[in-house]
Amino acid sequence: MNQYAKRRQQMGYIREEAEAPQPAPAPRAPALAAIEGPFAVEVEPEMAGERLDRALARAAEAAGFALSRTRIKALIEDGRVTIDGKAADDAGTKLRAGQSLVVDVPAAAPAEPVGEDIPLEIVFEDDHLIVLNKPAGLVVHPAAGHESGTLVNALIAHCGDSLSGIGGVKRPGIVHRLDKDTSGLLVVAKSDAAHQGLAALFADHGRTLSLTRQYRALVWGAPERASGTVEANLGRHATHREKIAVVSEERGREAITHWRREEMFGADKNGLPIASLITCQLETGRTHQIRVHMAHIGHPVVGDPLYATGFKTKVGQLAPKAQSLLAKLGRQALHAAVLGFAHPITGEELMFESKLPADMAALMKALRG
User: Model pTM?
Assistant: First the structure.
């Protein structure tokens, strides 16, 4: 049973089965180092016919340098790669034995967003990455309308010179995001090598590599079953550009959310629960995935301004204190509570858990009556 299946078993999605003996893990490759300055490669006979970008990426990795194919392509476009002394202009150039290649890697440029002194709740940090607890209301990355005051601005100020350069720029490597009004755990890379490793983990979605992401959500009503899985492709809404919608396979991307009912609160006039606490585990990581999937099965996240608009009548069924706390919450009641992964450099298995923020915890207490 692989790690992904074990996690599904722990959450109650599959039955325990006999486990076959597992082979010993392969030795982990040494950490890749940042590179600055010229890097020379002689084209050996076995490299003949290989693409320029692929050959340089392989040679850099063999030499212990963090230099991805994407970064190499950018350097080729900037005229910083030569073949026998002449600037290369095509990443797909096929090599010939005996050619001399040189890559001139410039020093990492200063980050474009400026650093800002914004308080951060750091739960883990080393030379390669940071795990932090993001508060609700904090935008992760600068964008139109949010050029400053973001998590990236805060991280640039916090990390300073410890950022070794992601893609040639001294900036934190964002491999996953949380919506502005979703709180909880987030991991960010500080080096190119860690960024590449984390990106591979999140692209795999925990299917074969070590990655666990669990969220706690307060939702309207309560699913009849104790647990289940939502498999529904997601894509941009046809008319409401801020929203994501369940769409056809042709229009959207695969999205899978596993959920488990934890607790139910109150009773409406029909004797059905008014709300419930749900644990969600992501098998994919799409924009607004949990919010859209829970709304799709009829149980949108409490307080969600986009996907729970049809449930405003439910608010009137809450006790006065709960109504007051919900109004004060002013956001979707969604929290990234558990984050686990294998450290991309050391291989150490890391697991972090974040308790519900005060606003969600207070609302849940009021819902209990």
Answer: 0.71
